[in-house]
Amino acid sequence: MNPVVAIYPGTFDPITNGHADLVQRAASCFEKVLVAVAGSTGKNTRFSLAERVDLAKTVTASISNVEVISFDGLLVEIARARGARVILRGLRAVSDFEYEFQLANMNRKLACDIETMFLAPDEGYTYISSSLIREISDLGGDVSRFVHPAVEAALRSC
Ligand code: COA
After folding, report:
1. pLDDT, position 42
2. pLDDT in the model for residue 126
3. What's the CA gap between 87 and 102, in Å, rounded?
4. Which residues are CB-contacts of 109 (< 8 A; sequence separation ≥ 6)?
5. What pLDDT, on the 0 to 100 scale, is given for residue 3?
6. Considering only CA atoms, which residue is closest to atom 39 of ligand 1?
7. Does ligand 1 have an atom closer than 6 angstroms to the CB of 11?
8. Rounded CA separation 71/64 (Å)
């Protein structure tokens, strides 16, 4: 069987230790993992696309089979263009399931040859989300346990 490339899409605004944990787990399962930072997701992002990509690159720099890319347009199109046969998503809690199930089914309708697979992050990260991290940082809270130091610095300076 050919080596399997997996694509892990998200807004990553910003990338957190929860995302990083998932990337680490995926990197040990797949030949290559593409962390795909979405340009247009309908979310009003705190960080520009270039900043989100740079932070994701910094956070994943030590994992040799991970590449960070950005994309606009349909996820399945970038997956196909980059030879990814698997879309990876994290399931933190039951509350994630409904949306993720819908996304997975729609992506399957758009590209039946690409499978969605779910990974569970470490239980210590199940309560983390990018918007909570931004809120805590904005209110002067300590986010150092939840994000890489480069992300913490970026949050402080914006
Ligand atoms: N650890 C910590 N947080 C996590 C996490 C993990 N393992 N997994 C998800 N999250 C959080 C994120 O921080 C984010 O939190 P926030 O909403 O507070 O910012 C939330 O869960 C979900 O965000 P994310 O994982 O970035 O996904 P998303 O829903 O923003 O991204 C895309 C969705 C980019 C995958 C989707 O919009 C997409 O595919 N877009 C491309 C266009 C397309 O193809 N559309 C058709 C789809 S069928």
Report:
1. 86
2. 92
3. 14
4. none
5. 83
6. 75
7. yes
8. 21
Find the angle CA(20)-CA(62)-CA(134) to the nearest 5 degrees. 35
DSSP β-bridge partners for residue 36: 9, 69
Give, for ligand 1, the residue of 129, 131, 134, 147 to mutate: max count of ligand atoms closer than 8 Å to Cβ.
Answer: 129
pLDDT score, position 1: 66
Q: Is 22 in the pocket of ligand 1 (CB under 6 A)?
A: yes
Q: Which helix (H) or strand (E) holds 66?
A: strand 66-71
* Residue nearest to ligand 1 atom 27, measured at CA: 10
Strand bridging mode 84-90 / 66-71: unpaired
How far, in Å, is the centroid of ligand 1 from the Cα of 42? 11
Lookup: tokens for 40: 């247009």
Give which of 59, 2, 9, 70 is closest to 31, Cα–Cα.
Answer: 2
Could you give the C-alpha distances from 26 to 87, 121, 146, 148, in angstroms and in order? 11, 10, 19, 19
Q: To test the ligand 1 pocket, which listed residue (19, 71, 87, 100) has its Cβ within 8 A of the most ligand atoms?
A: 19
Rounded to the nearest 5 degrees, what angle is found at the Cα of 61, between the Cα atoms of 46 and 42? 25
Counting as low any pLDDT under 50, the low residues of the chain are none
List residues with catalytic annotation. Answer: 19, 43, 92, 130
